[in-house]
Amino acid sequence: MEPIIIVLIILVVLVFIALIKTIQVIPQASAAIVERFGRYTRTLNAGLNIVVPFIDSIRNRIDLREQVVPFPPQPVITQDNLVVNIDTVIYYQVTDARAATYEVASYIQAIEQLTVTTLRNIIGGMDLERTLTSREEINAALRGVLDEATGKWGIRVNRVELKAIEPPTSIQDSMEKQMRADRDKRAAILTAEGTRQAAILTAEGEKQSQILRAEGEAKAAALRAEGEAQAVRTVFEAIHAGDPDQKLLSYQYLQMLPKIAEGDANKLWIVPSEIGDALKGLSGAMGNFGNLGGGPTVPRPADGNADRREKPAID
């Protein structure tokens, strides 16, 4: 009985192993290559799959998601014989699991070597300045070459990026000095332009200010002249409306004499000839005023009536 039990146990174990090998579960976004006696049979997709145990075997499991592979810095010589180190990052995706397994031994290593050689060919036709300023151009050229070469491997290169471009230390120092000199030059130019513009604006402002001041003075003088003319006209009209006699005019003339003599500059002033007539008229007026105040009465030659006193006229 014991040998039979041992045989049954062995059979159960073999059946269990066969079941395990028969059922293959493939994760999502993955694929598996099945070989039968070393020859490609089919590709297993995501989900539950049945294979023939001990006859079919799983050769390779491939991730179909987009992969990101950074490559170490590679020394590249530019057209002007300068060595720069360039870091690259490749974004690729396996589109054909069978081609990626059988068309190339190691597609990651193949992509790396192809990237290095293509990068050297592209950078070799550029000088250092163009290399540093043409990343988009280099990325596009790399992507085009890699996508064309890796298509038969079942690989699609989605994106190529230059992570860093490092020129030699001496070149970096020279570039920093040049950039510093350029910045100083631009700063000096901007300062000069600002000073020039400020001077121009100041001159324009002074010009406008003088023009406005002159216009204001002209308008003020015109208004003053117009006011004085109006005042003279008003006084003239008032004088003519009041019909003054010679006595009043003589008195006003004498009142203006002290004002004419005022001021330090008036060392010499001329008395007009009309002042004698004014004084005569004023003396006559004062004499008449004295007679009105109580002096002897002047008789009227054409009238023989009794003495009468002239009454002063009341304005």
UniProtKB/TrEMBL annotation:
CDD domains: SPFH_paraslipin (cd08829)
Location of the Band domain: 21-179
Subcellular location field: Membrane
Domain of life the protein comes from: Bacteria
Main subcellular location: membrane
Stored PROSITE patterns: BAND_7
Residue stretches of biased makeup (Basic and acidic residues): 305-315
Signal sequence extent: none
Family: Belongs to the band 7/mec-2 family.
PANTHER family in the cross-refs: STOMATIN-LIKE PROTEIN 2, MITOCHONDRIAL
Protein name per UniProt: SPFH domain-containing protein
Source species: Streptomyces ossamyceticus
